[in-house]
Amino acid sequence: MSLLEVNNVNRVLTDNNGAQVNVLQNINFDVQQSEFVSLIGPSGCGKTTLLRLISGLDRPEGGTVKVKDELVTKPDASRGYVFQHGSLFPWETIRDNIAAGLRVTQGRHFDKQLVDRYIALMGLQGFESAFPHQVSGGMAQRAALARSIIMHPELLLLDEPMGALDAFTRADIQNVIYRVWQQTKTTMILVTHDIDEAVYLSQRIIVMTPRPGQIKQIVTNPLPYPRQRTSDDFLKFRQTIQDLLDFGSHDQLVTDSKEKAK
Ligand SMILES: Nc1ncnc2c1ncn2[C@@H]1O[C@H](COP(=O)(O)OP(=O)(O)OP(=O)(O)O)[C@@H](O)[C@H]1O
């Protein structure tokens, strides 16, 4: 049995002019336990919309999302969600942010040693008492990851967690995510615009196209871990994904120009 099953999912939303928009159309895929899968595609193809359906924040107009054969109907602590901007509580220290979920589930006597272990795992020693605005964007994202991972979610949903970071910090957080995935074997689904990131981390890449948001192709990554970003095989596979995305945008450009010509 797959951990996650997305079957014939459609999402219809109303735009500012009151028109119905098919944001997602006929989405089908499975994710296995401990798998790392990326969703990649141009802006507006519905990646975040899909992640929100998997988390249970929203419900699809058609089709089903199931985790362990159970219909997803609302958010659940077994599914962690990390946002682009981490969304740490600004009034709490890094330590308190990381412990936030544990305080809810375990109460005042939560496992403080576990918090220490995650502070160490994320390389945040020395910054435990700092507030989010006093640490770098990369450190804040490490803390946000720790806050989710410490709850041992069976599925971790990562919504462009590196999107707002500079290239150097991005690579650093990618390595943190890779290490955490290797050590915990948590199933992860990553939304990204970044082909290198998807190729570096994922076992399978779901390439999406916009208007309506659809799956163009699901590609298995043949590269063994750990991956070398500059190896010939890496660059070759990267090009495969690039070609799929370029083809999509070419289609889109042709459609756009036809629409303009009308
Ligand atoms: N609440 C909403 N009401 C109406 N339309 C929406 C709503 N939320 C999203 N959309 C539209 O749905 C489409 C998909 O949005 P979504 O944010 O899922 O795309 P995305 O692939 O994650 O984009 P990006 O990479 O820019 O974050 C977009 O065209 C967006 O304008």
TrEMBL record:
<dbReference type="GO" id="GO:0005524">
    <property type="term" value="F:ATP binding"/>
</dbReference>
<dbReference type="InterPro" id="IPR003439">
    <property type="entry name" value="ABC_transporter-like_ATP-bd"/>
</dbReference>
<feature type="domain" description="ABC transporter">
    <location>
        <begin position="4"/>
        <end position="235"/>
    </location>
</feature>
<dbReference type="InterPro" id="IPR050166">
    <property type="entry name" value="ABC_transporter_ATP-bind"/>
</dbReference>
<dbReference type="InterPro" id="IPR017871">
    <property type="entry name" value="ABC_transporter-like_CS"/>
</dbReference>
<dbReference type="Pfam" id="PF00005">
    <property type="entry name" value="ABC_tran"/>
</dbReference>
<keyword id="KW-0067">ATP-binding</keyword>
<keyword id="KW-0813">Transport</keyword>
<protein>
    <submittedName>
        <fullName>ATP-binding cassette domain-containing protein</fullName>
    </submittedName>
</protein>
<keyword id="KW-0547">Nucleotide-binding</keyword>
<dbReference type="InterPro" id="IPR027417">
    <property type="entry name" value="P-loop_NTPase"/>
</dbReference>
<dbReference type="InterPro" id="IPR003593">
    <property type="entry name" value="AAA+_ATPase"/>
</dbReference>
<dbReference type="GO" id="GO:0016887">
    <property type="term" value="F:ATP hydrolysis activity"/>
</dbReference>
